[in-house]
């Protein structure tokens, strides 16, 4: 059944599925095709209504950003720690991207270093979403306690990588639910077979039949409907570079099959933009945003893909991976790089992101420090410290690391518990207060709630 795009206030089906949103004029939910009706959703919801505040709030914000206006776009960086995400918020970014590649590399529940092949435990990405949201909560609590004049809205919408779903449609249903529970605003799935999943910039990728991936998208949508959250669902195709398909059952895939089989029984197909366009057109009714994974930063190909999608689905939001797997300066001039995202925005690529920004910034910065420290000792570290002081004028606060992690917040908790009489608070008497802060202001903040 089709849910037409119109204000939710006049959409009876959406009033049944999303009663709390029924008085708002929003874009979300209503454009997606579902292979089930609202009566099925109501039957699956159970009798207790659970609120998912962070996921709902983030999804609302993400939808507003995506539909902000023609040519506009959201640019995000991939975070692999809560601290990185907080710095992104303080620097003025509008969204957080959560990469499965980074989860595999250094943020998974197995405590292992993995390549991007879905080898890590399935709950790892959801736990990182939770970790980032917990970091946002602490940063918000600290800023609120300190009475900041220009309080930052730390709760940036998180778009989380669900890989190829870690199984079939039922697995996609469950992983989407886990992401919503953790507070994700959006999720994305790719059309590879989960058991052979690879990074989009690796070889050996095997595609699902088109009809099977539509079931995955349908499963993710059902999860969002059952949980009553307008999660943004991004459908990604790897067909531009993938040359294998598990089956020849779907007529939509058959024009691209070569007739050859592999030792594993897979069908060889003709990788390329036309195969990606065909799949993008098939997926578009079932997801909110379409992403075509590409091998190079190529505006001409991006234009061809966007024109093809918009010829059938005018205004359909698109996503683009500005990947560190591209050698940017080997492909584009400095001027082309500077204008790249703006040009994509004009084509309708509303969500643009650097997937592995966290991994590369963390490793590059630490390597530089370690190498400099090896040769120059403490002089190397003081360069970082001086730059931290310089960045404070732009909103950087982590040079006061005790304050950054909530020492002052828990001093307030101690003062509240003791009725304002505690003599064991941590910031007072610390080297941070002595050497980095105005000591008087710290003492005032610490005791202001108690009139002392």
TrEMBL record:
GO biological process, one term: glyoxylate cycle
Keyword line: Glyoxylate bypass, Lyase, Magnesium, Metal-binding, Tricarboxylic acid cycle
Chain positions recorded as substrate binding sites: 99-101, 200-201, 236, 321-325, 355
Record pathway: Carbohydrate metabolism; glyoxylate cycle; (S)-malate from isocitrate: step 1/2
Cofactor: Mg(2+)
Keyword Metal-binding among record annotations: yes
Cofactor remark: Can also use Mn(2+) ion.
Signal peptide, first to last residue: none
Alphabetical list of Pfam families matching this protein: ICL (PF00463)
Entry keyword annotation includes Lyase: yes
GO function term, MF aspect, one: isocitrate lyase activity
Residues binding Mg(2+), per UniProt: 161
Family matches, as Gene3D superfamilies: Phosphoenolpyruvate-binding domains
Active site: 199 (proton acceptor)
Protein's UniProt name: isocitrate lyase
């Amino acid at each position: 059944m089709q849910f037409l795009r119109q204000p939710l206030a006049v959409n009876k089906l959406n009033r049944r599925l999303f009663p709390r949103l029924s008085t708002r004029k929003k874009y979300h939910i209503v454009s997606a095709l579902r292979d089930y009706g609202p009566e099925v959703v109501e039957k699956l919801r159970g009798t207790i209504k659970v609120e998912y505040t962070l996921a709902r709030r983030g999804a609302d914000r993400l939808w507003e950003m995506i539909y902000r206006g023609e040519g506009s776009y959201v640019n995000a960086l991939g975070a692999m720690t809560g601290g990185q995400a907080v710095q992104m918020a303080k620097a003025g970014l509008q969204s957080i991207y959560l990469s499965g590649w980074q989860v595999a590399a250094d943020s998974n529940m197995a405590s292992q270093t993995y390549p991007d092949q879905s080898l890590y435990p399935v709950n790892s990405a959801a736990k990182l979403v939770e970790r980032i949201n917990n970091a946002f909560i602490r940063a918000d609590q600290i800023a609120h306690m300190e009475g900041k004049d220009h309080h930052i809205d730390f709760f940036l919408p998180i778009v989380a990588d669900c890989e190829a779903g870690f199984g079939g449609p039922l697995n996609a249903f469950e992983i989407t639910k886990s992401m919503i529970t953790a507070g994700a605003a959006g999720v994305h799935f790719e059309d590879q077979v989960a058991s052979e999943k690879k990074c989009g910039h690796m070889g050996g990728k095997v595609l699902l039949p088109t009809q099977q991936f539509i079931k995955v998208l349908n499963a993710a949508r059902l999860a969002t409907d059952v949980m009553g959250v307008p999660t943004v669902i991004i459908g990604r195709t790897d067909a531009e570079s993938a040359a294998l398909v598990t089956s020849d059952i779907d007529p939509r895939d058959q024009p691209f099959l070569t007739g050859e089989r592999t030792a594993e029984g897979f069908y060889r197909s003709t990788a390329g933009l036309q195969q990606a366009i065909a799949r993008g057109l098939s997926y578009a009714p079932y997801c909110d945003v379409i992403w075509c994974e590409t091998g190079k930063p190529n505006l001409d190909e991006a234009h061809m893909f966007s024109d093809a999608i918009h010829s059938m689905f005018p205004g359909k939001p698109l996503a683009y991976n500005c990947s560190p797997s591209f050698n940017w300066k080997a492909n584009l001039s400095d001027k082309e790089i500077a204008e790249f995202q703006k040009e994509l925005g004009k084509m309708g690529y509303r969500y643009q992101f650097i997937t592995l920004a966290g991994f590369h910034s963390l490793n590059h910065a630490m390597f530089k420090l370690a190498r400099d420290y090896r040769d120059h000792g403490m002089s190397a570290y003081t360069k970082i410290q001086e730059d931290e002081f310089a960045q404070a004028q732009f909103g950087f606060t982590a040079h006061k690391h005790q304050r950054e992690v909530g020492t002052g917040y828990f001093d307030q908790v101690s003062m509240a518990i003791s009725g304002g009489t505690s003599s064991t608070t941590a910031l007072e008497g610390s080297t941070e207060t002595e050497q980095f802060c105005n000591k008087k202001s710290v003492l005032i903040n610490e005791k202001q709630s108690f009139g002392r």
